[in-house]
Amino acid sequence: MLFSNLCPARPLIMILTPPKMVPHWRQFLLVCAFLGIGLSPAQAQREAPRPERAFASAVQLYEQQLYPDAATALSTFRTAHASHAVVPQTLYLEARAALAEGDDAQTRRLLDRLQQQYPSHPRAQAAKLGLAQYYLDQGNPQKATRQLQAIASAPNSPTEGARALYLLGRTEQERGNLDTALPYFKQVYTRYPDADLAPAALYARGVTQVRQERYDTATASFERLGDEYSDSPFAQNLGTLLGEVYYRVGQYENVVTELQRRLPDLAGTERTRALFLLGEAYRQLNRGESAVTQYRQILDEAPSSSYATPARYGLAWQHYAAGRHETAADAFAKVRGTGGTLATRATYYEAVNRALLGAQDQALRLYRTYLQNGEDDRRTAEARYEVGLLLYQQEKYADAASTFQALTQSVLSGERLGDVYYWLGNAFLARDELDRALDAYTQSRQLSGAASESVTLEAQFQKAWTLYQNGRYGEAGSLFRSLAEDHPETDRGQDALFWGADALYQQEQYGRARTLFRRYLDSDPDPARRVGTQYALAWTHFKQRRFEPAARLFRQVAQAGSELSD
To answer: What was the pLDDT predicted at 326?
Structure first.
């Protein structure tokens, strides 16, 4: 505040509303009080000394908001009575009158003079900061900033410097200039670490960094606050804030340590929030039972709070993660009944768990319900993918193909898109749409850099098998043999070796077919496949009129077949 009453025993508080009229008899009392003169009845009858009367008259003009006249009267008084005790107050009031008239330059000149000539006067020490505060209160941050920068560059004391820098930071923060605010806050606790405002500045810096989602630096700010100013109310009242920042940066062990330390001192919503964050941190740390404990504590202590539904969702998720699909499905169903964003998400995961339980029709209904409300593009695409799989399992191949076809234009990419094309190929193949199936398998294969190896391998095999079934043995054989060479240790690679040999047989390339059949036998297939391969090998000899080895192999097949039947 800028101004005080004239009576030192009762300082006048700076106000921004127009001053009120002071009755003439009160002016005299104020002047006497300012000079420390008691008024006895005898003294009250005397005429006031001339300087005091002139000063009182100037004050009256000021109180009547006649600022130009007041400024003139105050200036005249200073000139006429330069050594009078009230001159510092006169300078101050004259500066206030200039400010009321919008003369900022004159205001600053008078305040500078007050500080230079009367540095120990209480008003001199607070004058410039008061002026800056006045600008802020009047909604003029530009003028306030200029004033505060002038103070910060040459403060009269560490306290004044710290306050100027802090107000600069707060001003920029409130204007939304967060990057500009941060250096001001930092200067407070680095230049004036012992100032009362140092912990406040460190706290404000951390909060600003949280607003910027710069959680790593916010963590450092709050940790420094706790280390260097542990007795400060700002450090003691952090509540869940530091724990939340730790959670944002993925420091889940620190979340647990920080919140468990503060939990006994928390109550109400803050305590419930801390319990929820603890549950989420334990979930991220794969400490499921500890997470369940926190979620259940929320439901016991605050069943009607805004954290109750998220806690129920957290419990459902833990059941799902633990493979308790029926319990998980029922728990997600309870969340689904609450409405809102979490209810929509719970619908999706209830569908997942119903599908895992084999309840295909119920899962299909839930996925479709989710698709009516889902807002997350990727989860929506995943739901459509699951719908396609369920339709395929129910042998509704046309609907499955339509679903997968639409998904090829979705946000899915890489591995999952490879899966989509693979199942699209399967759906087309089930409908005897060979060319479309081959195109889909080709697309899946082209995604091999991103798709899982097993899906890519299966897509290639299905493409080769489709070609084989349609009598295109040359193309099929090339694909089968390529798969056998590239994936010799896999089951599909071994299957491809056999069918690659068979494709050569169909092309009457019996010698090459025989070589591959023997390679397949060397891989030690199971007894039934071994017998089948020996039978095919016998036919390669027979077709080339090599009857002796053919007969020997046919006898081996007959003997092995009887042993298998036994």
So the answer is: 96
**How far is Cα 90 from Cα 99, in angstroms, rounded to an integer?**
14
Q: What is the pLDDT of residue 120?
A: 66
Helix (H, G, I), strand (E, B) or coil at 389: helix
Whether 395 and 411 have beta carbons less than 8 Å apart is answered as no
In the chain, the N- to C-terminal Cα span, in Å, equals 106
Closest CA to 515 of 525, 507, 526, 504: 504
Give per-residue pLDDT as tens, 310-331: 999 999 999 999 999 999 999 9
* Sequence-distant (≥ 6) Cβ neighbours of residue 88 within 8 angstroms: 114, 117, 118, 121, 123, 124
Residue from 326, 305, 248 nearest 280 by CA: 248
Give me the pLDDT at residue 60, please: 87
- Does 476 map to a domain? no
In DSSP notation, 420-437 reads HHHHHHHHHHHTT-HHHH
The reported pLDDT for the residue numbered 564 is 59
Low-confidence spans in the chain with pLDDT less than 70: 1-49, 120, 122, 124-126, 448-453, 455-456, 562-566
Burial code (b: 16+ CB inside 10 Å, e: under 16) for 70-80 equals: bbebbbebbee
pTM over 0.85: no
Query: How many Å apart are CA 239 and CA 207, to the nearest integer?
Result: 13
Number of H-type helices and E-type strands within the chain: 31, 0
Q: Is residue 396 part of a domain?
A: no
In one-letter notation, the amino acid at residue 418 is: G
Burial (CB count within 10 angstroms: exposed 0-12, middle 13-18, buried 19+), residue 517: buried
Measured CA to CA, the distance from residue 56 to residue 26 in angstroms comes to 10
Write the single-letter amino acid at 553.
Answer: L
394 is a domain residue: no
Sign of the CA dihedral with 516 first, then 521, 525, and 530 last: positive
Cα separation, 505 vs 525, in Å, equals 20
Domain count within the chain: 1
- Residue 62's CATH number: 1.25.40.10
pLDDT at 33: 39
- Is residue 447 one of the residues assigned to a domain? no
User: What per-residue confidence (pLDDT) applies to 45?
Assistant: 45
Predicted local distance difference test score (pLDDT) of residue 15: 28
Report which of 270, 257, 272 is spatially closest to residue 223, judged by C-alpha positions.
257
CB atoms within 10 A of CB 431: 14
Which residues, 6+ apart, have CB-to-CB distance to 50 below 8 Å?
none
C-beta separation of 458 from 477 below 8 A: no
CB neighbours (10 Å) of residue 170?
19
Kindly provide the b/e burial profile for residues 480-504, where b requires at least 16 CB atoms within 10 angstroms of the residue's own CB. bbebbeebeebebbbbbbbbbbbbb
Helix axes 453-469, 491-506, angle to 10 degrees: 20
Which domain covers residue 117, as residue numbers? 1-138
540 burial type by CB count under 10 A (0-12 exposed, 13-18 middle, 19+ buried): buried
